[in-house]
Amino acid sequence: MDALPDAGAALGDIMESFVLTYRHDAATRTVLLVTDYPFTSPGSIREFVAFVFDDASFERLPGDHAPYQSVTDAYQGKGPGGMVVQHIGRRSAGPGRERVELWFGPNFGGIAITYGALRGYSRGSTATQTGPASWQYRDSKTDETFDFPYPFPSLTDGPPYTLVI
Fold first, then answer.
1. In this structure, what DSSP letter does residue 27 have?
2. Phi-psi region of 157 (alpha: psi -120 to 50; beta: other; left: phi over 0)
3. Are 49 and 37 in contact (CB under 8 A)?
4. String of b and e for 111-121 (b: at least 16 CB within 10 Å)?
């Protein structure tokens, strides 16, 4: 896991990226967002990014599909049919505060995060097909294996964090 030198710029690059996780922790006032990333580091075939929004407030922007409206402050994607980032809106929310709105489509809707600080991390990977529809992912620098839905287990607590829709 490598720190991103400019997390704000990287956040602007996640259009059409597959959303693996978002999680709001009201107690710590943080929001975590994990997606795949369109740019790869040397030796990587698939890159992942994690954004940690600090001093954050969270708002769910509901879509029009009723079953998804119950998904509020946590989402964990898994397998085919997941959602992707379809729109990113950003603006100032006052001195030292920014707001980002991430839209995942009309059925799911999106999320809005107002925050004071943003940190970002990346992780490159390689993968080996282990079955007709299964793959083993490895960190491209350390060769450590990880589960595809959890490329940043130190940030997401890894499995069994399994809210899946």
1. T
2. left
3. yes
4. bbbbbeebebb
pTM to 2 decimal places: 0.90
96 secondary structure, DSSP code: T
Side-chain-side CA neighbours of 30 within 13 Å: the count stands at 12
Local structure of 73: helix, strand or coil: coil
First to last CA, the chain: 27
Instruction: Tally DSSP H helices, then E strands, for the chain.
Output: 2, 12
Phi, psi of 42 (to 5 degrees): -55, 130
pLDDT band at residue 155 using 50, 70 and 90 as cut-offs: confident
Q: Is 91 helix (H, G, I), strand (E, B) or coil?
A: strand
CA 27 to CA 33: how far, in whole Å?
Answer: 17
Beta partners for 33?
22, 51
Which residue shows structure tokens 């490159």?
A: 124
Q: What is the pLDDT of residues 25-64, one digit of tens each?
A: 999 999 999 999 999 999 999 999 999 999 999 999 999 9
Q: What share of the chain is helix, strand, coil (3-state, %, to 5)?
A: 10, 50, 45
Query: How deeply is 85 buried, as exposed, middle or buried, from its count of CB atoms within 10 A (0-12, 13-18, 19+)?
Result: buried
Q: Which amino acid is at 36?
A: D
